Amino acid sequence: MFLRLVADSFGRRPRHKLLTGAALALGMAVATAALSVSLDVGDRLSREFRSLGANLIVTPEADSLPVEIGGVDYRPANAGAYLPESDLPKVKTVFWHNNIIAFAPTLKVRVSSSTPQWSPASATFVRSSSGGDAELIGTWHQRAVQLSDGSSFVTGLEKTSPWFRIEEGAWFDDDAEQCIVGKKFAERNAVQIGSPLYLAKGNSDDGESLKVTGIFSSGGPEDEAVIAPLRIVQNYLKRPGEYRELYVSALTKPEDDFARRDPKTMNADELERWSCAAYVSSIAYSIKQVLPGSDVRVVRRVADGEGRILSRVQMLLWFVTLAALLAAALAVGASSAASVIERRSEIGLMKALGAGSGTIGFLLAAEQLLLAVAGGAAGYVIGILLARIVGQKIFGVTPQPSLLVLAVILGLAVAVTLAGSAIPLRRAARYEPAPILRGE
Amino acid sequence: MSQSRPMFWRIVRRLIAANRGRLVVILLALGAGAAVTAALLNLQIDAKKRLTTEFRVFGANVIVAPQRLGAGSSETLDESVAKQLISIGRGRHIAVLPMLYITVSAAASAGKQPVQVVVAGGARDLSPAGVSADPEGNKWSGVSENPAQPACSVGARAAAHLNNLKKGDLLTLRSGNRKGECRVGSIHSVGGPEDDQVGTTLELAQRLAALPDRVSLVQLYVPGRPSEIQGFISDLQKQIPEADVHGVRQFTEAEGKLYDRISGLLTATVAVVLVLTTLCVMAAMTNVAMERKNDVGLMKAIGGATRRVLRLFLAEAATLGLIAGLVGAAAGLALSVALGKAVFGVAAQPRLIVYPVVVALTIVVAVAGAYPLRRLAGIRPASVFRGEA
Questions:
Q1: What are the residues facing B362 on neighbouring strands?
Q2: Which of A57, A319, A326 sits opposite B343 (nearest CB)?
Q3: CA distance linking residue A422 with residue B319, whole number of Å
């Protein structure tokens, strides 16, 4: 009988039920879309922030003090300490290895460049000189690093410094005798793509010849530089298998006061909590542990700015979500309140026929619940679709539908409809059937 | 007609006041919609503007340097360039920081082995936020200023190489036969080349370098959208032809990308929320409007023309929309001010244009929600009274 009454109510007034259901579904769609976007945005934006480049720099601990002005180190070529390249795969073995999205080792040396008149095919000579006018940078372009689990990880300068742009030609090949030159360097020395560049040793004019495959610009001091595969620069400096600076780009969680504490002052519990959060400082700490003799520094300019903007945008979206939830809840509540109010005469009739207030409340609540579940589910589907469109448009990646959101949405739908119906139902319980049936 | 106008509004009044429960329901739904619309629209406009000022934490995004600050070249600019920049950038809230870099040999105390170190003159504070220092200021907070012995900020790595220099120590700087001293005001660690440098006043660096009134470069922070910054850079280049003005591409490019992403995200989210909220409110309104069947039947029975009856109900809906819009939009603007304060620490400025737009939108939604009543034009009064349909 109970089920028949519910079914009858839906069958008799399909339009009303449809409208209440539509309001519910739309309200819940708002909530789903906003929730899905907010849940997803931290990861997505944190990946976008990697276009700022490396947020960690690894240097040898025993290094002498760099004398660097405007990105140019004026130390003599062989001063300072180096780190072994063979340790690098260990960077991907730290606890936060999935958060490390790129790294590139570099070895730099000041060089002076010259393009002698007599040289054939406009060959350019560079030779190591501490007062030189250019820089020779050895690094990886796209290097497949073999990891201990058998997989390989492709990384290099193109990922750690995405603002380096090839203006003409192409990147060099890590295994070939090739190089790319900065825009200003190319202008000054009239370097063309395909022309040779000699790494001269001592005062002689012979040396290893590299083919210029591209001209790049960085908008920074590197525009005066030559970039070649790390191996070649290592051989040139007689430093095989060594590098001086490692740039690491890692996905991090915005830092709070706890993150900034010195791990040495923490007790065991705090240290565990600290190292189990993807703070940039805890990632730095874990990298330092796998690279002996290294000094890992956080690029504060990048890391702090990133953390600050990320937490603000996230907070902003949470507020938008909250506001959307509130509006959806009020509109849905209003809609279900209206559907109870309009049934005064029906309630009066049921009471006249001997139904108790409890039974009537139960009947109406059951109807509303049915609507809430159906409307909530429909709203979830619409919301997920909208969140996908937003995610695809903005980040090119669709957010994963999460069951957590479905649970929250259904719970919310039920809570909102019941709350919306509660006040009119309480009033309905007090109705006297006689005046209602008389039409008063 | 002159007689029927007061009557018209009297009926509307009665329609509104007839059922208090229904009135509350409608006002709640419409008001909530209006409040959220107003809050989000206002916040969205404000947040985009705030975002560009947030990028300030990345530090300088434009560098003014001598034409060929080629490696090894020691060319400098005249310090007056900084003043010129300030006057060009007036009203743009730019931060200007003239710097002079020199290499000196520094010693923590007499008799100790001196270390080659770079002195960055002009940077009171080499942390990224240091660039937001006021253009004229060379004052150190908390350290008494003494021209003969200014304060300096030593990078953590430089300090480690200088016998673990500590705050309050005296640092002797020598360049050729010129000598200067500074008192260590702070030790900074920012993860950049600044950690290897000693930051001090521009005057001290100029004296050590024997380059009075010269600077190596000027760091600028220019707020604004990427296109605005690009425009400003080409403006500067035209007005200061003797210098090379360029953006720090690492930051300008990333800022542009991030700005696009974040503002796109905000716009999309706000648009989705607004459209759905509107539809949701409209569905709720339609539901309420459908109940007026009996009223319509009665009015038609006593001789009301369909169009006049419809007009009555639309007038009722518009009045309710107006009331809910006026109250809701005001509440929403207040809400957005509070939200702006919570997120950015600065109260969002209420844009007055949002208010009328939201009120108008609420009226439109209310009327659109009541519009399905036109279907009731086909109602036959008799069947309503017989309790059919």
A1: none
A2: A319
A3: 28
Q: Per-residue pLDDT averaged across B378-388, rounded?
A: 67
Write the secondary structure of chain A as one string of H (helix), E (strand) and C (coil).
CHHHHHHHHHHHCHHHHHHHHHHHHHHHHHHHHHHHHHHHHHHHHHHHHHHHCCCEEEEECCCCCCCEECCEECCCCCCCCCEEHHHHHHHHHCCCHHHEEEEEEEEEEEEEEECCCCCHHHCEEEEECCCCCEEEEEECCCEEEECCCCCEEEECHHHHCCCCEEEEECCCCCCCCEEEEEHHHHHHHCCCCCCEEEEECCCCCCEEEEEEEEEEECCCHHHHEEEEEHHHHHHHCCCCCEECEEEEEECCECCCCCCCCCHHHCCHHHHHHHHCCCEHHHHHHHHHHHCCCEEEEECHHHHHHHHHHHHHHHHHHHHHHHHHHHHHHHHHHHHHHHHHHCCHHHHHHHHHCCCCHHHHHHHHHHHHHHHHHHHHHHHHHHHHHHHHHHHHHHHCCCCCCCHHHHHHHHHHHHHHHHHHHHHHHHHHHCCCHHHHHHCC
Note the pLDDT of residue B135: 34
* pLDDT tens digit sequence for B207-239: 888 888 888 888 888 877 778 888 888 888 888
Q: Where are the domains of chain B?
A: 4-53+258-385, 61-247
Query: What was the pLDDT predicted at B68?
Result: 63
**What are the pLDDT digits (tens) for B147-174?**
567 778 888 888 888 888 888 888 888 8
Q: Which is it for the CA torsion B252, B258, B261, B263, positive or negative? A: negative
Q: CA-to-CA distance for B381 and B389, rounded, in angstroms?
A: 11
Which residue, B98, B116, B11, B6, is CA-closest to B60?
Answer: B98
Residue B280: list chain A partners with CB under 8 A.
Answer: 23, 26-27, 30, 327-328, 331-332
Q: What is the pLDDT of residue B143?
A: 39
The predicted-structure confidence for B343-368, as pLDDT tens digits, reads as follows 777 777 888 888 999 899 889 888 88
Task: Give every CB contact of residue A353 below 8 A, 6+ residues apart in sequence.
Answer: none
DSSP B184: E
* B64-89 per-position pLDDT tens digit: 888 764 444 467 888 888 888 888 87
Contacts of B256 (CB under 8 A, 6+ apart): B225, B226
- Say if the Cβ atoms of A132 and B72 lie within 8 Å: yes
- B174: which strand partners? B105, B179
Counting Cα atoms < 13 Å in the Cβ hemisphere of B72 gives 13
Kindly state the average pLDDT of the residues B277-302.
Answer: 75
Q: How far is B355 from chain A (nearest CA, A)?
A: 18
CA-based radius of gyration for chain A: 34
Write down the ipTM of this complex. Answer: 0.74
Q: Which residues pair with A207 in a beta bridge?
A: A200
Output the DSSP codes for B127-180: SGGGGGS-TT--PPTTS---TTS-EEEEEHHHHHHTTS--TT-EEEEEETTEEE
Listed as ranges, residues in chain A with pLDDT below 70 are 70-72, 76-79, 117-122, 203-206, 439-440
Cross-chain residue pair A342–B265, CB shorter than 8 Å: no
Q: Which residue is listed with tokens 């036959």? A: B380
Q: Which amino acid is at A98?
A: N
CA dist., res. B185 & res. B150, Å (int): 9
Q: How far does Cα A401 stand from its chain's mean position?
A: 17
C-alpha pair distances (Å), B106 with each of B74, B119, B133, B227: 20, 9, 26, 43
Question: In this model, does residue B16 exceed pLDDT 50?
Answer: yes
Residue A327: its chain B contacts at CB < 8 A? 32-33, 35-36, 273, 277, 280
